[in-house]
What we know:
alpha+beta, 27 strands, disordered C terminus, Beta-Lactamase, 6-stranded antiparallel β-sheet, single chain, 5 domains, 8-stranded mixed β-barrel, 763 residues
Amino acid sequence: xxxxxxxALSISIAAAGIIGAALLLVRGTNDDFAKAEGxxxxxxxSLQERVDGVFQSIENVLRDVVGRIPQxxxxxxxxxxxxxxxxxxxxxxxxxxxxxxxxxIDLVNARGRIVGTSNPHxxxxxxxxxxxxxxxxxxxxxxxxLYLSEPRRIPATGKKVLSLARKITDTDxxxxxxxxxxxxxxxxxxxxxxxxxxxxxxxxxxxxxxxILAHRPKSERALGRRIWRPNTPLQRMIAKNSATLIRDxxxxxxxxxxxxxxxxxNYPGGIAVSRPVxxxxxxxxxxxxxVRFFAYLMDIAVEAASLLGLRHVRTGILRAASESYLSRHDxxxxxxxxxxxxxxxxxxxxxxxxxxxxxxxxxxxIDRFKDINDNHGHGVxxxxxxxxxxxxxxxxxxxxxxxRIGGDEFAIIQRPIRxxxxxxxxxxxxxxxxxxxxxxxxxxxxxxxxxxxxxxSTDGKTSxxxxxxxxxxxxxxxxxxxxSYRLYDADIKDSxxxxxxxxxxxxxxxxxxxxxxFYQPILDLATNRMWGCEALVRWKHxxxxxxxxxxFIPTAEESGLIGPMGDWILQDACSTAMTWVHPLKVxxxxxxVQFKCRDVFASVKKALSVSGLPAxxxxxxxxxxxxxxxxxxxxxxxxxxxxVSISLDDFGTGYASMSYLRSFPFDKIKIDQSFVRGMDSxxxxxxxxxTIGLANDLKMSTTAxxxxxxxxxxxxxxxxxxxxxxxxxxxxMPREAISAFIEQTQPAHEAGRDEPVPERAVA
Length: 763
């Protein structure tokens, strides 16, 4: 048979099938409009929470800077001098580096002049901001504390920015000035781009008066204009400032759109998410099957070209296919990527609702993956990702779907399921897959996985809502030290709301001085006398009583409140140590977040200066989670130059303890309590002995944490540990109690002695 007849016959057969399928599609092209409304509303809510969080983080930074202004500087002349000082510039520069979305921070006096700035370039002339909307509003309206400006472009760079301005007042409420944060709008655009599943979806961040602050997809004429046309439903609904769904014609593309509005919770603005009504009525199923139609057509074209020997045609078609594959797959693991996963999740959701079969969504995250990358390099990290991908792929059924949706995050659509036991079976299989260590870069790693699971029938009415539920469950799993997985339920949802409430309570607690430092004695094993104390923060909540640091420190770090909290801890602990009748040392933990958003050296130096504590009496403890960048290492070296000792806390629990020790000349190693409590085990005893021997070789001292029995204490003394700390010696106690304890336990002749004692001399 001639080639052209073969091609014609093939195309005819395919066309007949396509026409038949098309006839079936016509009957079901109208998607459920209510589902579309739900998806838009959920996306608007999700983005509102995220944008609120971004602004909240920025405001926390501004609050922190304002909180560091001394009371005597909250006067017009004193404020100008304080703002212009080099110390304040260092504070502003450090605050700017806290968040990537911050471009610069300026201090503006009551006359509208910039008197302090994080901008590294000196100002040649006086710059006044009296013509800005935020200065006019904040200087005139006594009740207004915060202002969100209209967007603008920086002439020199073309960067789109807005200003978040906060009023500064004295103790009587008199206007002293403004702190202004310039925010990069590209940060919000990047967030929105993550959710642009189709080119017809539009996402807008607007100010309460309707001014467009950020818009995706890109539209140059939209920025700074009103989102609504005058006297339209959209204008009226935005004025009401409440979450709603409406239909209105957009002036940007002149299409009737279904719009989900959600105002920001704490800031004068909102989120609008919209899709054309025509597209919604057409339904997504038709588009999905149309893609398959082109795929079938492409297959026919490829075969036809092969039969005719038209290599250039075949090559072009295959190249197009390759590009399509690359855009929808992860090249490192060859798994589907996030784009293809989201499409498959939406399709699975529709099929599940149509046929009545349930499915589960598993989100899986590699534990401490950032530590591996930071300490061993991205090459090793890539090998671990590949190994995890292979093991997960081997554990699922053919009907299931797996994708890599982030750097260390995977997703599995388990379909269908017949109940909770089947979900638990897959979770167990996932955990079992990682029982054998992963070898990468000639090193074995015990890789753990955290899993969050949501079930379609109970945990989400839309694919977006289901994804959000699984993500909440994953966060709960990662936050739970006793479990590697969590299934979504109402309790987890409540805990997320509790975290938001906790952040607000933390701010109030800092303002109301609800935090208190307790001090746990540390025993010198050579002399059997007190060596010093570790300062431990406690929160005495007015309604809930004492709250564990394990509950509030992670929230403080995530929200940026650890900055002002850390400064207070330094100052209070140093001041308390100066009240002791014996010159004991005081040890203070530093959070890795403090190194990112604070000038740690300046904070420590200020605490020493204000308290009068000699530097050799201060020990700063850091863990391996503090990334020893060039800047962080320089800071630690400058602190050692002052005479401050640096201790490596929780030694032996990280991926890179040994390499970490080589990165910086620590004064002390703290042996983690998990090894001390496990001293009945030969392995733990061997690790402790090896650690002490290593410390001795490196001329470092050692402190063993968590000592609870005489047997542990004697074993540590025999092994050569320098100091011990734990409930056997003494529990943590408040300021007054520790002072009395020191007086009772220390020899009287040591009172008042405060000569410099090298850190290692006590060992």
